[in-house]
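Comment thread on ticket #2218

A.B. wrote:
> Attaching the input chain for the structure job we discussed in standup.
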Amino acid sequence: MQASATCHMCGQTDTVTVWKKDWDKYIGGDLLQNVWGYFDPDEREILRGARAGHYFCPPCYDKIHEVEEEEGSDYRWSEEDAADARLAENKEEGRPLWQP
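C.D. wrote:
> Ran it. Output below, let me know if you need it in another format.
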């Protein structure tokens, strides 16, 4: 199957091909890096974006973080960290892990 995510800044759509059984593991609660540890971080970010509905392509992601660094932010959660935190919170509170 193909998972696609569209960048919220530039509109670029990126796609990764995965096995459906692996996608189902991820939707079921397995961590992204555990299911696709062999993918590079940019490919995993596409998958996270396809699931979460919120994605920035690598060039736009870098631009966003450049601005944050200039503003003196001490710590920034990565998109993957934030998504994993939301997933854990949903799981703890009995909410659906993912909704289309």
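A.B. wrote:
> Thanks. Noting for the ticket: The CA atoms of residues 51 and 99 lie 8 Å apart.
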